[in-house]
Structures are given as C-alpha cells and as structure tokens.
Amino acid sequence: MKTKPTETTIWQKLIRLAEKPYDLTAPGALSGSGRIGTMVCRSAGLRLLYAMQRVDEQVLTAFQELADGFDLVGRFQEMRGGAVLNRIDGWPSENRQVLHTASRDLFSENPLAPAATAQAKRELTQLERFIWEVDERHLLGSTGKPFTTMVNIGIGGSDLGPRAVNEALRAYYRPGRQVRFVANVDPDDASAVLASVDLSETLVTIVSKSGTTLETLTNEELARSAYRSGGLDPARHFLAVTGVGSPMEDPQRYLRSFAMFDYIGGRYSTTSMVGCVTLGFALGMEHLYAFLRGAAEMDEAAGHPAVRDNLPLLLALFGIWNRNFLGYPTLAILPYSQALHRFPAHLQQCDMESNGKSITRFGEPVSAATGPIVWGEPGTNGQHAFYQLLHQGTEIVPVEFIGFRENQYGQDLPVDGTSSQQKLIANLLAQAVALASGRDHDNPNRRFAGNRPSSIIVGNRLDPRTMGNLLALYEAKIVMQGFVWQINSFDQEGVQLGKQLATELLDLLKSGTNNGSTIGGELLREFEK
Amino acid sequence: MKTKPTETTIWQKLIRLAEKPYDLTAPGALSGSGRIGTMVCRSAGLRLLYAMQRVDEQVLTAFQELADGFDLVGRFQEMRGGAVLNRIDGWPSENRQVLHTASRDLFSENPLAPAATAQAKRELTQLERFIWEVDERHLLGSTGKPFTTMVNIGIGGSDLGPRAVNEALRAYYRPGRQVRFVANVDPDDASAVLASVDLSETLVTIVSKSGTTLETLTNEELARSAYRSGGLDPARHFLAVTGVGSPMEDPQRYLRSFAMFDYIGGRYSTTSMVGCVTLGFALGMEHLYAFLRGAAEMDEAAGHPAVRDNLPLLLALFGIWNRNFLGYPTLAILPYSQALHRFPAHLQQCDMESNGKSITRFGEPVSAATGPIVWGEPGTNGQHAFYQLLHQGTEIVPVEFIGFRENQYGQDLPVDGTSSQQKLIANLLAQAVALASGRDHDNPNRRFAGNRPSSIIVGNRLDPRTMGNLLALYEAKIVMQGFVWQINSFDQEGVQLGKQLATELLDLLKSGTNNGSTIGGELLREFEK
C-alpha cells in the first residue's frame, strides 16, 4: 500500500470520530455501565484495562478497519518470517531482515524463521556451557578466584534493554551474583563502576555489534588498563558480544565470544546474546529461558487478527489515536513497580529511535506526525513530582500505567490497615480515575478538567516470564505503529550527522590547530575558554 | 499587573518576531560572524552559550522589554525578601512566603530574609555538631559500631533533589561513607535497599514536612521492623527531618530531629535540612558549605537587571520563547556527565510541579500554555537512544545541554589520540551543531532539517560549588517563568484529587466490602481479577 495513510477513508473516518471523542467526565461515563469490565484485553500473561481511553464502540470498530486496511498483523507476521523490512524503497539503506523475534522463537516445533532461530539456539547452548563452567568453577579469574560479578560495557541498545531487565529481575538473581553497567564515554562512569567491584572476581562483557563503537572501545581500554594495573590478565576476564566478522572477533583478547546477527537491531536486541549474557550469569539459565518464553508468548499473541484480543495491536492503536487524532505529542509510561525504574528509559530508546522519523519507507515525507516523545518514572514516586502537570497542566499527556497484583520480594507489612502492595495498587488506580474523571470545585485552583486518557497494563507479578511479556509487548507495539506511519522503524540515520561532526571535532583536537571558522571549531574555542 | 500576558504589547511583538525566527541553517548563520563568541552569558561559575537558539538582536531586545515590563527580577528579589508569593488572590490557598533562597543566604552580612536565614544557620550548626559526634565516634549504633551508611527515606522533594545532588557529588564523598535512598511505597524498594546495607552501621533519615506522608511513614515502619528483627534499637539509628509541630517531632523515637519550615516547598528544599543531612554526612561540612555557597552565588546573579548578563533570566526567556512563541511542548535536559544522571528527574519534578498549572495567581484561567514536559538522560548515552527523534522526528524538542571542561575523577586515558573527556565534549558540541545546522542530502532519509534550538550550559568541573550553581540556576529559571505566566509556582493542588481517591480505595480494601459501583471500586475489582 503506497497510498498515504492520511488519504485513506478510514483515516478520514477517525478524524471525524475524534471531533467528539468519548467524554470520560460525563455522569455514568465510567461506572455502572459495565464499561470497565468490558474494556479489557488479555494477551499472554498480561491484561490491558482501557476504559479510561477516550474511545467508544465506534472507534474500536474503526481501529479494526484500520488494522485490517493497513494489514498490520500480516506485516508483523511477515517480519517474524524474515521479510526485509529494514529498507527505504529506491534508496541506499540497510536492506536487512528484522528478526529479533526469532531469538526467542525457541519453544515451537516450527519456528517462523528457522535459520535465525537455529543460530540463536547455538549461541544459547554456548552460553549455557560457559555459565556451567563458571558455576562449577572450571573457569576462574586470573588469580584463581571464582567469578561473582559481571560488568557490562555497551551503550544504547547494548545497555538500556539489558540494564532495564536486569534491574527488573534483581529479586531473582542468584545469591552472590551481581551485574554492573558502564555506558557513557564520560570517564567518571567507568571509574565509579570499576572502583566498586573486585576486579579479580569480575567478568567484563564488551557489547558492540560493529566492534567499532567509540564509547564502548574507549571504556574497554579503561577497563583493560585497570586490570593490567591490578596485575590481572584481561584475556581471562573479558567476554565479547559482537557481530560476525567484527574487529572484536579475537580469541587472543577474549575468554569467550558470543555472536550478534545483522538482522537484529540494537534496540530490539535484549533477547539476543546482548541481554542473555548478563541475564544468564545473574539469573541462571532456567529464569533466562522463562524470560525468553514470556517474550515468545507475546510475539505469538501479537499475531491475533482481532484488535480487541491483541494487546500489542490495541496498545499501538491507542497510541495512534492519541497522537494523530487527539493530537498529543508525548506519552508517559508509569510503572508502579520500583524494579521497573529503568524500563521507561529503555522504551524511550526503543520507541523514539524506531519511530522518530520524517521519511516513509518509500522515501517520501511522512503525511502525519510520527513517534511521540516517550518518558516516565516509577509511581508512586512520580505522584510527588510531575503528576501536578498531568492533572492540571495545559498539555495533555496520555499515560500507560503498569501494575502488578503481587510484589516481588514478598516482604510487606500492614501499616494503618493495608499492606504496601495494596497502597501501591490503590494509588495507581486512583490516578487513572482522577485523570479521567476530573472534579469540579468552587475554588478554580482545585478544579480538575479530566478527560486525560490512560491505559493500565496488569500483570500478576514481575517475574522473568512477565518481564518477557512486557518487553515483547512494547517491541510489537512500536513496530505496528511504524507500519501505520509507513516508516522504517529499524534504521537510525538520524544519529549519523552528529557522529560525523564529532569525528571532525576530535580531529581538530588531535591536530591541536583549531584556528578555522567551522561552526564546530568556533564553538569548541568558546567552550574551552 | 493583572493584564493577561497575552494582551501586552510586548507579547504581541514577540508573536510577530516569531513569524520568521532566526534561520540557523542559512549560510553563515552560525560561523564567521562572531555570533558564537558574542552570544555568551556568564553568571556565578557558569556560562551559557546560546548562539544555537533561534533568536537575533531584535528578539533579545524584546526579551529585555518583557523582563522589565513583567518586573521579573523585581519579583524575584521580592521573593528572596520574604513576599507571600505562594497564594491565589481571593481564594483559599497556602498563603506562604517562598524562602528557599534564605536557606543558603549565609555568606552575606545582610541576608535578605534575616529571620529565615538565622533559622537555617541554627539547623546547620546543629547538623555540624551531629556530624562531628558521628565522625568522632561519640555517637555509635546500638551495637557499638561507627556509622558508615545513611539511608534516606522520603519521596518527591524529600528524595529527588537530595538524590540527584548526592549522585552528582559521589566523587567527593568521604572514604567509607555511603548514602542510599528509599522512596517508593512499592515494598520491593525498601526491601532491596535494606538488604544491601549493614543496618548496625546505618543511620536512617526520615524526611517528611507534614510528618504524615503515606509512602514515607510506611517505609519507616518497614525499616523499623527490620531493625527490631535484627535486634537493633531504631531510636539510636533514626533521624527525623520534619516540619515544626509535625507528628514526627518525638525525641523518644529519633536520635536527632532537624527542622523544615513552611516557607520552603518540597521541590525547592535541597539546600535546607532535606538535602543537607545526607550531603553533610557523606561530603563533610566543608563541601556542604561550598555547595550552599554555589547556590547563593547564583541567587545573587539572578538579581542582575540586564537579560544578557543574567543566566537564569535568559534561560527562562528562551524557555518562554520556545514554548509560547515557537510552540514546542517539551524540553530535553541533556547533561554530558554521568554523575548528573538523576538531575533531569529532579528538574522534571521542580519544573513540572511548579509550572504545570492552568489557573493564574488571580484565580483565572491562564491565557497561554504554561510549563513544558521536561525530560532527559545523560549524553553520550542518549545519542545511542532517543536522539534519532531529536534530529529527524516530526516533533521539535528544544534542548539544554550541560557540559564541563574537566571530569571529576581525573582518571582518563587517551584512546585513538584523544581522552574520554575530549570525546565527551566533542560529542556534546557536535550534537548542538547538527541540531541547529542540519544537512541536505540526495538520499531523503539522510537529510536533517536543522533549526532545532539548543543552549549549552558550561561549567569548569562538576564540584560542590558548581552543583550549587546549577541547582539554583534552575530553581530561579522556573520561578521566573512562573512570573511570566502569572501562576503560583509554589503550590501543588493537582496532586490532591489522586490522594483523596487513593484513600477512598484503601478504605474499601480495609473494609473488605468492595461491592458498590464507584469508578474506583469497579476498577479495583477488575484489576484484582
């Protein structure tokens, strides 16, 4: 379909429906009608409560028409089967398959992309063997100590996803295991982390698909230097996770290497070796497989043709509705779980790098606004911070809440008649109601306009499987939105210019002759004053 | 002045100027003209490079006219002197002074609000004495161990600011001292932190102005219970930071109490005892005073009448220009310093809770858009994440970069001919240039439209004094923007409705009879299914 989305009949229909969206503040709009109990979608281990979105039956029917007309599920299945979706028709582009889903399609007898899944299985087998050797102390540090700690050095996709999932599942870590992360080229980042661990018990995992990432190679050198200063042999502590044929493929320098494949983009790589090495080390293989199974379940669920029974698709369409038809430029993701404190940062990357685009996959300017600005912090913390603006600001912010019925540690205490977990849930739900319903008041400063839309994603408990569900839910949501906008959600040409200009500035710094009048050169002189 | 801002002549003039804002992509727009070297503002220890904003001399002159017409500096000085600015004329409101500036106005012979500064000094003297007793081991834990660790339990303003500044200054911590933070009512937050420290060597600081904050009291109970289970006496480990007359004023339960005053709002309280207790414990008093001095210097600088010589004022006006005249709904704050990784979260609170308002201080609906959505992550990390959208998305995001000429730890290593610190700076500057200048290209997917505005805040090194500069810079900026919008930047009525609805839900949970058809009740039943 090369017709612009905005020129389709269904797009025009949605514009008309959005002229008078469902009024959540009207009497009886939310309660007493069965709306709350009806507007629920379940996929894999998660449910979506969406009564607080500004939609009615007509809009949901139009969603189905949009999904069918744009063949969103069909394209998703083509992706899973290995279609070359990372491309711009008629222009030089990466021209690659998009097969992050294959890295967890391990549990079916007929994986959709058998070759890629076979490669994933080989790497997992190698990882399992490696972790067994570490656990059994066949592999020891260069002074003979068993490994307790892993430092992950990577940036962007090689950092945010693995970090978010490790943080989320810390309650499931094996006793005595810890993982730390270094990303920033700021040398203080590596200094602080390296100073906080016992290097002689530490594995350092270097993650870079190209094997040429400036930040990662620089931090690797800092880390190797720290090992050498401590009289330790880096080659017995360092692991590589890198692309086939990358300059990092060097058995002399690494204890082990694990492969990344060009059909998995960085921001979608958490279920590949990029995430699996730290997670396997910290959680053990059983929990790692539960996590991968959770992701696979959600991929499978995203293939359901009915919008109302397909959580990723429905979440994608609420995003389209709020962005393109109600006109809201941002999306807040607010998990009511401290363990998910870095999950919004991962989704910020995954969403904004995928869908922050202005050119369609046909090389033409987009005809509608694309990816929103995605941001968020955990609740209840945010309630005491930026929620003021969510309730009474002049900018309307759609919200995706995430909550769980049970906590992770099982440590809780009734205070004033309720447990902490009950307080957490009560607060989450109260916020959704307050945003939607608003409240009138004599004092104008105590009025709440309401009609601020939200969804609630509910899981039973944040365990490895549920985390897999959540990760794959958002990956699928983002991809499906890209299909609607007709963009390539898998490249990142927008980061190239900055890289190129940084290289030019570094050349100036190296040569020590910054006298010219390039913009960067002038700015550098001013900065250094 | 009760005239609406939008009805003033200067507002209308700015609307006309914004019809054709300065084109940063035109040939010679940035280099060769001296623009970069001229468009620099210095206040206290910081400089602002603002050549990459879409302004020219006419706009800057109009800024001065706006600042004078709205008496922004005059009102700021009135605030510092104790004016009752936390109020809504003609309606019930908090009716309080706004005197966070007094908590650091310690270095002048004539403080602007002498009574409040005297109170701050008394608390600091008490803190100094306490820290001396801890250092000299006159005070020991209940099993006789010296204190090495402090856990701060607070939320919102009692958490984000102190946490951001502690993280920023970790390089200056005294050897053997550490501070951890618990905020979330999610019981996993406290469980994880309490399990990671040796309680017998730990002080627990409970921070709540009202002494009734749900999350904080709940976490206090969890922590006290952990102490009792470990055979330790909480009364010998727990400190209180609370308002005069709060229910937490109880010497039986706390080793020491420090006072908060009602004229300092939570999100502005980092330089009061709310931040000083953890910072004094970790940094020592000398560094703490350097931090307070840095903040006082910037408050002083914010009193300068000339826009071009007043960094907080200028930063405030770029925000107004981008929000109200160029129409951008968000602001990204991107520190090129890993130590500032939580500073954007603090500013998100301070800005959005202050200025996310729809009612003026006269109780009327605002006539222009107020506070933007503030978000951000450290660079260079973000470059590998969401910068794609900054460069090529359909939404334009103004950026405030923060960078330092030197790093904190002094540990660096030349790799490929440049140090990490040089790489960090080169990347920061390259991003600003790329956003502003853009680039044409045959391949439409490699085009950059440019004209995406940014400022660069430059400091020498992120030390305690510079951190004080930065904190006070943003506090003053936010307050001055509130003056332009004619709102009360010091209340937070928008958080009340959610609190009230949460209490109702908790009552339902306590009674165990959730059968009715309130919206919250129905939602709770659905959530629990």
UniProtKB/TrEMBL annotation, chains A, B:
Keywords: Cytoplasm, Gluconeogenesis, Glycolysis, Isomerase
UniProt pathway annotation: Carbohydrate biosynthesis; gluconeogenesis; Carbohydrate degradation; glycolysis; D-glyceraldehyde 3-phosphate and glycerone phosphate from D-glucose: step 2/4
Compartment(s) of residence: Cytoplasm
GO molecular function: carbohydrate derivative binding; glucose-6-phosphate isomerase activity; monosaccharide binding
Reactions performed catalytically: alpha-D-glucose 6-phosphate = beta-D-fructose 6-phosphate
InterPro entries per record: G6P_Isomerase (IPR001672), G6P_Isomerase_C (IPR023096), Phosphoglucose_isomerase_CS (IPR018189), SIS_dom_sf (IPR046348), SIS_PGI_1 (IPR035476), SIS_PGI_2 (IPR035482)
Top-rank lineage group of the source organism: Bacteria
Enzyme Commission code: 5.3.1.9
GO CC entries: cytosol
Ranges in a coiled coil: none
NCBIfam families given in the database record: PRK14095.1
Function: Catalyzes the reversible isomerization of glucose-6-phosphate to fructose-6-phosphate.
Name under which the protein is recorded: Glucose-6-phosphate isomerase
